[in-house]
Design brief:
Number of helices: 18
Number of strands: 12
Strand order of the largest sheet: 9-8-7-6-10-11-12
Distance between the termini: 25 Å
Largest sheet: 7 strands, mixed
Number of domains: 3
Structural class: alpha/beta
CATH topology of the largest domain: Rossmann fold
Helix content: 40-55%
Order of helices and strands: HHHHHEEEHEHEHHEHEEHHEEHEHEHHHH
Radius of gyration: 21 Å
CATH superfamily of the largest domain: NAD(P)-binding Rossmann-like Domain
């Protein structure tokens, strides 16, 4: 079986040259699926792995727009529909200069399994552009979003493909994208995008959901070890949407977050991060995290620092892929870290993951731990379909229940396959089986 999986992976590399993040994501999944293939030979017979690893559609398009100086700029847009066996493609849009096809394919592939383990009827997809909204005026962002949607609109719809936000795509961008979709189609199709403002079809808790959900998953991992969040010292990388609301929920549940970061440096605040200050800097003023230390003079700003050098019991990587290396993982373990909850997608390198698993650290991988965002997007789709609007309390209760169910599914699947406590194997096999069974039912399509 290992030889077969190795051949599958080698063929994927040959068919997708240069897409390193995609290779990494595929390897992390397929190398855990041997036991599932042995127990279900029909998966191998019908080449389920090979079919899952090949996107159903890949769209690449030109995005021309005009900046405030009247100059024409050109970016590249992407949307990859990876797998729709369980429902319409569902996954965010990422606007960042590092985006290329390999990034979108890695994110879309992860999304397939993440969405499957939520138990919601949604497939996996992802999109974005190599556009950087940082430093751009609202008018420039609007013109870019309108140009992007002018091409994308023909490929999406509430029963086909439902994008949401990701890095670089927040409420402002979703608003501009939805406005252009409405303008072009002459339809108020609320369910075509999620992450909308609650004032016009969005769900309460959607903004908070990825960060909150990650904390709920970490809480369940600790409960499984007869432990809890109360009094734990935490660090949370990043200071964007996921990090902010992870910090907020950790503190609400009795933990103390002493550090957060952005791409320029790290804030260390021994008395605990003031999340309201971070919100103001990042969500309102759109400023760098270094200004936190000007507001809280007892905090320390470490330019270019490594947040994983700060001693903690819980670490939540909530910034970007491959931010937590093997060396940093060893430092965390040596400093007494007992649990990792990934708020970002694939933030820990494979060597770092091995360090955590070998040390017995509770390791909650992204496709399970950060699934709260897409789960709440599916709840937003439910509200749009029924022309309803739920309260914050009710939606958060649904989110917490979903994250508890995801943890239980991963935990029980890992035990079923003789790897108790291994959330990587649990999440990968649980998600894979759900997609595989649907694909078998549909025949060879």
């Amino acid at each position: 079986m290992k030889d077969r999986i190795d051949r599958i992976f080698e063929n994927i590399i040959l068919r997708n040259p240069g897409e390193l993040e995609f290779h990494q994501a595929v390897k992390e999944v397929v190398e855990t699926l041997g036991p599932a293939l042995q127990r279900h030979p029909e998966y191998a017979e019908h080449k389920i792995i090979e079919r899952i690893c090949e996107p159903e559609r890949q769209i690449i398009f030109r995005v021309p727009w005009q900046n405030d100086r009247g100059e024409v700029e050109i970016n590249r847009g992407f949307r990859v529909g990876f797998n729709s066996a369980l429902g319409p493609y569902k996954g965010g849009l990422r606007f960042h200069p590092s985006v290329y096809l390999g990034t979108i394919k890695f994110l879309g592939f992860e999304q397939v399994f993440k969405n499957a383990i939520t138990g919601m009827p949604i497939g996996g997809g992802k999109g974005g552009a190599d556009f950087d909204p940082k430093g751009k005026s609202d008018s420039e962002v609007m013109r870019f979003c309108q140009s992007y949607m002018t091409e994308l609109y023909r490929h999406i719809g509430e029963f086909t493909d439902v994008p949401a936000g990701d890095i670089g795509v927040g409420g402002r961008e979703i608003g501009y994208l939805f406005g252009q979709y409405k303008r072009i189609t002459n339809r108020y199709e609320s369910g075509v995008l999620t992450g909308k403002s609650p004032q016009w079809g969005g769900a309460l808790v959607r903004r908070e959901s990825t960060g909150y959900g990650t904390v709920f998953f970490v809480e369940e991992m600790l409960k499984a070890r007869r432990d809890g969040l109360e009094g734990k010292t935490c660090v949370v990388s990043g200071s964007g949407n996921v990090a902010i609301y992870a910090i907020e929920k950790l503190q609400a549940l009795g933990a103390k977050v002493v550090a957060c970061s952005d791409s320029n440096g790290v804030i260390y605040h021994a008395d605990g991060i003031d999340v309201d200050t971070v919100k103001r800097l990042k969500e309102v003023e759109r400023r760098r995290i270094l200004y936190y230390a000007e507001i809280h003079t007892d905090a320390e700003y470490i330019e270019g620092g490594n947040i994983w050098n700060i001693p903690c019991q819980l670490a939540l990587p909530c910034a970007t892929q491959n931010e937590l290396s093997e060396e940093s993982a060893r430092t965390l373990v040596a400093n007494g870290c007992i649990a990792i909850g990934e708020g970002a997608n694939m933030p820990t390198t494979p060597a770092g993951v091995k360090v955590f698993q070998d040390a017995g650290v509770a390791y909650g991988l992204g496709k399970a731990a950060n699934a709260g965002g897409v789960a709440t997007s599916a709840l937003e789709m439910q509200q749009n379909a029924s022309r309803d609007a739920w309260s914050f309390e009710y939606t958060e209760k649904r989110l917490r229940s979903i994250m508890k169910s995801i943890h239980q599914d991963c935990y029980e699947t890992a035990a079923e396959y003789d790897n108790p406590g291994n959330y990587v194997i649990g999440a990968n096999i649980a998600g894979f089986r759900r997609v595989a069974e649907a694909m078998l039912a549909f025949g060879i399509i």
